[in-house]
């Protein structure tokens, strides 16, 4: 079963509801006359920014060169990806669009010249450069705003989302209660992708009822992580996997650890395991973006990767039942930390006395152990104020 979000991805600008797509097309078609050599499209998640650029490239038969600034954030990485593309003509003399997605993912100094490199790309590009962002009003983006023509994508009106969902329902032969579909659209908070994902979950029996929509958005009886893992690992049905974690009342960090621990136990084929871990990795990337920029709508995509992504990674269901177990990583980290507590405590005393860093002092502890293993040194004990347990540890 295909994901609706991929199956019904806009193929043309006419498929995109409620956004100023004509402004994008006009900019690209009159690029040679434009004073500003880049277009910055900004607005909330799920409003069609990236999809519009893809659809426009298809409409105008232009080659699309795309990078995600959240993943390719430093000077070398950006230039290696699009450095040549901004000057070279496409095959068959087609024009190009350079798309830099999620430009607000560049964090600043830590990204080693990434933002300045993008400004240089804009200045030197022969082709239209289009950037997308959720929020560009941070002071660090002031120079970028000045270099770009700004186009705002507003939060989608629920009626625009409703029109798109009705089209999908007709294509998929899904019957629906009008009020139920309206409720689903309102609950999406203007995020088209989230609404389409919810529709697919609810449409497993080809019918959307108000009762089911209400249940879908209510907190139901909680289930354990083990029960959720059972749903994910033992199905290849999208409608079973997608809602697997909806009723798990656990932190996402803990769910990640459970998945990391149990995927290798369930997926025995190398190819299945690799695909499942790829989806786990993708979910972790989006979780990192939430922590950095508070883009909370990314939770929708995280749970899709953890549920449907992992479930569909296997070629076939594995027979037999496995007792899924909590992660042992935290215990292992605790044991390793306990093992190093004495070393860290001694390093702290060395650092204090020598006015150096803990990291540097940890290296010195190895030399102290060598000295104490050959001869007890009262002067060092007194100088560092070592207790009996620390002396014993150094002497072993």
How would you explain this protein's 3D organization?
The protein is of the alpha/beta class and about 400 residues long. It folds into four domains: about 20-150, Rossmann fold (3-Layer(aba) Sandwich), CATH 3.40.50.300; about 155-220, Orthogonal Bundle (Helicase, Ruva Protein, domain 3); about 220-325; about 330-395, no CATH class. The protein is built from 19 helices and seven strands. The chain has a five-stranded parallel β-sheet, with helices on both faces. It has a two-stranded parallel sheet with strand order 6-7. α14 runs antiparallel to α15. The chain is globular, with a radius of gyration of 27 Å. The model has no long low-confidence stretch (mean pLDDT about 85).
What layout of secondary structure does this protein have?
Layout: H1 4-7, H2 21-29, E1 38-42, H3 49-59, E2 63-68, H4 75-82, E3 96-101, H5 114-124, E4 129-133, H6 142-147, E5 149-152, H7 158-172, E6 175-176, H8 178-187, H9 192-202, E7 207-208, H10 210-217, H11 225-233, H12 238-241, H13 252-266, H14 270-293, H15 299-311, H16 329-354, H17 358-374, H18 378-384, H19 388-395
Parallel strand pairs: 1-4, 1-5, 2-3, 3-4, 6-7
Task: Provide the descriptors you would attach to this structure in a database record.
about 400 residues; Rossmann fold; 19 helices; Helicase, Ruva Protein, domain 3; single chain; alpha/beta; five-stranded parallel beta sheet; two-stranded parallel ribbon; 4 domains; globular
Q: Return the string of H and E elements.
A: HHEHEHEHEHEHEHHEHHHHHHHHHH
Report how far the terminal alpha carbons are from each other. 61 Å
Coarse shape: globular
- What would CATH call the homologous superfamily of the largest domain? P-loop containing nucleotide triphosphate hydrolases
Q: Poorly predicted ranges (pLDDT <50, ≥5 residues)?
A: none
Structural class: alpha/beta
**Record field, number of beta strands:** 7
Number of helices: 19
**Mean model confidence by pLDDT:** 83
Strand order of the largest sheet: 2-3-4-1-5
The CATH class assignment of the largest domain is: Alpha Beta
Looking at the overall shape, the CATH architecture of the largest domain is 3-Layer(aba) Sandwich
Please describe the biggest sheet, giving its number of strands, its sense, and whether it closes into a barrel: 5 strands, parallel
Number of domains: 4
Proportion of residues in extended strands: 5-15%
Radius of gyration: 27 Å
CATH fold field value of the largest domain = Rossmann fold
**Share in helix:** 40-55%
């Amino acid at each position: 079963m295909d994901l609706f979000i991929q199956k019904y991805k806009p193929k043309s600008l006419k498929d995109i509801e409620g956004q100023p797509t004509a402004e994008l097309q006009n900019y690209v078609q009159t690029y040679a006359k434009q004073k500003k050599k880049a277009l910055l499209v900004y607005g909330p998640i799920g409003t069609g920014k990236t999809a519009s650029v893809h659809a426009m490239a298809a409409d105008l038969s232009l080659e699309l060169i795309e990078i995600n600034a959240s993943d390719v954030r430093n000077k070398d990485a950006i230039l290696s990806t699009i450095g040549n593309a901004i000057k070279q003509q496409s095959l068959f003399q087609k024009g190009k669009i350079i798309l830099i997605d999620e430009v607000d993912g560049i964090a600043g100094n830590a990204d080693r010249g990434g933002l300045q490199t993008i400004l240089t790309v804009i200045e030197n590009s022969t082709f239209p450069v289009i950037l997308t962002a959720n929020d560009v009003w941070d002071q660090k983006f002031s120079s970028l705003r000045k270099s770009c023509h700004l186009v705002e994508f507003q939060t989608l009106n629920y009626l625009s989302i409703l029109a798109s969902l009705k089209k999908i329902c007709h294509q998929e032969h899904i019957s629906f209660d009008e009020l139920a579909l309206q409720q689903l659209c309102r609950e999406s908070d203007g995020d088209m992708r989230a609404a389409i994902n919810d529709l697919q979950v609810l449409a497993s029996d080809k019918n959307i009822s108000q009762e089911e929509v209400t249940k879908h958005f209510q907190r139901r009886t909680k289930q354990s992580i083990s029960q959720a893992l059972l749903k994910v690992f033992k199905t290849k049905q999208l409608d079973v996997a997608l809602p697997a974690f909806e009723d798990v009342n656990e932190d996402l960090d803990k769910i990640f650890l459970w998945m990391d621990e149990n995927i290798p136990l369930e997926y025995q084929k190398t190819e299945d395991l690799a695909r499942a871990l790829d989806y786990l990795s993708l979910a972790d990337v989006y979780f990192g973006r939430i922590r950095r920029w508070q883009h909370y709508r990314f939770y929708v995509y995280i749970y899709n990767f953890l549920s449907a992504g992992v479930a569909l990674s296997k070629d076939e269901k594995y027979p037999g039942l496995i007792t899924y177990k909590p992660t042992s990583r935290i215990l292992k980290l605790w044991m390793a930390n306990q093992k190093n507590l004495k070393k860290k405590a001694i390093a702290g005393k060395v650092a204090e006395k020598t006015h150096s860093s803990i990291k540097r002092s940890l290296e010195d502890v190895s030399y102290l152990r060598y000295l104490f293993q050959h001869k007890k040194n009262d002067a060092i004990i007194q100088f560092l104020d070592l207790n009996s347990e620390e002396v014993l540890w150094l002497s072993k």
